[in-house]
Amino acid sequence: MLHMDIKKRLYGSEGKMKLEVKLEVAEGSFVVIMGESGSGKTTLLRLIAGLEKSEGEIHFGDENWHNLAVQKRNIGFVFQDYALFEHMSVEENLLYVNADIPLAKKLLALTGLSGLVDQNVKNLSGGQKQRVSLCRAMMNKPKLLLMDEPLSALDNEMKEKLIKEIAKLHKDFGTTTLMVSHDASISYALADRVIVLDQGKIVNDGGKDEVLQESQTVTYTLKR
What we know:
This protein has about 220 residues and is α/β, with parallel strands linked by helices. Helix content is about 35%, strand content about 30%. The protein has eight helices and ten strands.
């Protein structure tokens, strides 16, 4: 289980604000974090990953992550802008993380990229790059997968394909997943649970049917 009780001062959409989040996430669940731009969603992921510091505590199982170095947390992170090594091939990007060739081949097969193993990633489409990014994030078989709006730059057809692939990877690897999204349809397709942030505070938290039917969440989506 992921447990956090954190506080951090930052600038939001309305100026200075305090991110205050107390949260528990069950192992193996898929949680989507929604809210307006500037509500603290990405900062929350970065704090869990150890890319930023906060007051409070973060635990995963028996491990205290609060002051643990990023590389010692067993996480995968999928960024909105891919964050790939563009001088490397598809396979080289994966093997840079972990020299496990059978795992790399399995992940590329699951995401339909087997035919592109030797391609330089700079020559790939946006959808292909994001699939490589997803595979790379899974190369250490992370306990926790964090995704920051991984589908926002893709067309609808590619979004549908990646939704299926993300769901399959989540199921096959049993990874606990937290994803930031502003898209209610994506959230509904993937989430067990939806959390809504507003100005650094959790204002709604529950099952996807319960949360996504509320007009407040729809308003956040339209304003994004």
